[in-house]
Structures are given as C-alpha cells and as structure tokens.
Specification:
Blueprint (H helix, E strand, L loop, with lengths): L7 H13 L7 H21 L11 H18 L10 H14 L20 H22 L2 H25 L11 H13 L16 H5 L8
Bound molecules: zinc ion (2 copies).
One zinc ion (ZN) binds next to helix 4.
C-alpha cells in the first residue's frame, strides 16, 4: 500500500463512496477474473475461426488497433468527461467517481474491494462485445471476408483487455513490481497527469498508448 497519507478530499470521497455504494456481494478478484477470462475466451474463439489467412488480411490487426486507439481517445475525451445523453452512467462513473476516488496524489487502490472503481462493470464488457465488436466484426465478415471479421473481433477484444490490465496496473500501489516495469511506469505517469483534477479535461486522454494524444497535441508537457 502507498505509504503517503491520502489527501483529505480523497479520503472523504472514498469513505462516502464505500458507505453509499456498499457492494456487499462484490468480490474484486471475481470481477478481475470475469473481465480477463471473458475477454480471453472471445479472443481464443475468434482466433480459432481463422483459416488460411492471406497476407493482406493480417493488415486488419494494425488497422483495428489504430481504430481502437481513436475510439479510446474520443470515448474518454467525449462522454467519459462530458455529460452525454444516454451515456450519463459513463460520465458519472468516470468523471464524478473514478477521478475523485483516485487523483494524481492518490493513485493506488486500498483493497480488492476498490477494483470496482478501476475495472469496467461486467455489463460494459457485454456492451463492448455485443454492441460494438460483434456488429462491426459482422460487417467486416460480410463485406470483406470471414478472416478479417474474426481478426477485428480478436484485436478489439485484445485492445479492451490491454486497456483493463494497464489501467489496473496504473492504480496498483506505486511500489508494486508490475507498476515498476519500465513501459508500465511510463504509461502510468502519463495517466497520473490526467488524474490531476486541473488537467483531466484537457490532457492525456489515451489510457493505453498515447498515439492520438501525440497526433492531436494533447500530451501534457511540463513548462
Ligand atoms: Zn485511472
Ligand atoms: Zn479521465
């Protein structure tokens, strides 16, 4: 656990959040397992459907990766930080809860019970899978080829799981082995800047790899 005491406003928010959203039946590691195994099963299923992939079809992997990076950037910069009709829950969970439960001065969770403030709720995994990956994959399947449809599904779910695992590592105690891996540590400090309440609406919107942040000039730089 982080040795530094929590800032008063964060300690107050956490106490209040835990009191009002008791989550008596919530098991953090079961949530983590559902997200991980659910995503890995879909990736495994999609990869098992591939047959005789032609060289050009593999291009679907980098193309889907970049598309996911764009979606992550605009999803975060948009509805996660601006109240949007029909997506109020996303704004509430992210701006009003995640950003007050964790700030740049208090990035670490305290127990597995706090995982619900880090991971997407399981219902959103089903939404990503059923509402986004499946219809777009089906479109590629029908208009392109079955292989590119399955490669899209595998890459999109792989990206989603990378997002969840990396974001989980950013909110581990700073001294944790995984948080100190060189690449994770760099990405973690990118996200830590975004957790500064004065900067969250303007900088560092990519949560995985800051490709769009760089392209669109929203990487925060120390003056
Ligand atoms: Zn975060
Ligand atoms: Zn944010």
């Amino acid at each position: 656990m982080s040795a530094a005491p929590l800032p008063e406003h964060v300690a107050k928010f956490r106490t209040e959040y835990r009191r009002t959203e008791s989550g008596r039946y919530y098991i953090g590691w079961a949530h983590f397992a559902f997200t991980s195994l659910g995503s890995l099963s879909v990736i495994g299923l999609a990869l098992s459907q591939l047959s005789g992939v032609r060289p050009w079809e593999w291009l679907m992997v980098p193309a889907s990766f970049l598309l996911a990076n764009v979606a992550e950037y605009f999803g975060h910069r948009g509805p996660m930080h601006h109240r949007t009709k029909g997506l109020g829950l996303v704004y509430r969970r992210h701006t009003q809860q995640h950003h007050h439960f964790f700030t740049d001065e208090a990035m670490a969770y305290e127990s597995s019970h706090d995982f619900r403030m880090v991971l997407f709720p399981p219902v959103l995994l089903l939404f990503f899978l059923g509402g986004i990956a499946t219809p777009i994959g089906a479109l590629f399947f029908a208009l392109g080829s079955p292989n590119i449809g399955w490669l899209f599904v595998a890459t999109a779910m792989g990206y989603f799981l990378t997002y969840e695992w990396l974001h989980f590592c950013y909110h581990l105690p700073a001294e944790h082995l995984l948080a100190r891996l060189p690449l994770v540590a760099r990405l973690r400090s990118h996200h830590q800047v975004h957790h500064d309440l004065r900067r969250m609406g303007r900088f560092n919107f990519n949560i995985t790899f800051p490709i769009c942040d760089r392209l669109l000039g929203t990487v925060w730089k120390q003056k």
